Amino acid sequence: MAEERESTSIPLSQAENVGVDPEDPAKSPPRPSSPNSSTRKACCFVLQSWVSKKFMTGCVVLFPVAVTFFITWWFIQFVDGFFSPLYERLGIDIFGLGFITSLLFVFFVGVFVSSWMGAAVFSVGEWVIKRMPFVRHLYSASKQISAAISPG
Predict the structure, then answer these.
(1) pTM, whole model, 2 decimals?
(2) What are the boundaries of the region Disordered (predicted)?
(3) I need a surface site. Which of 5, 78, 119, 152 has the fewest CB within 10 A?
């Protein structure tokens, strides 16, 4: 006949506590943390994430602006320093003359490069720059950026 097995039934209330030893922290069930603590942690995480994203957005926006201002300031100082001995000899001391000279310099470079002779000089200069080991990478990257923001 069929073998009868002994049934070991455990009441439901005791079944939950099988293998639980209140004395052993490794076997004891995790204690629920207070709802206030988990909410606070979640809020701090969300706030920290939001602040971090906004800070990085600010960096991404301000970095190109700062670089542009730095390069523009350097260029104006360079042109002003280049022409300042000429201004001193002529006895001219006008505030902002370096800025105006810088704008005129950029304009005349644009006019020159637009001509066939200027384009030829520019292409020779570009050929020389593209042969320089480190400079060619910088020039190529800046030329791509200029092409991307160029009005026409």
Answers:
(1) 0.46
(2) 1-39
(3) 152
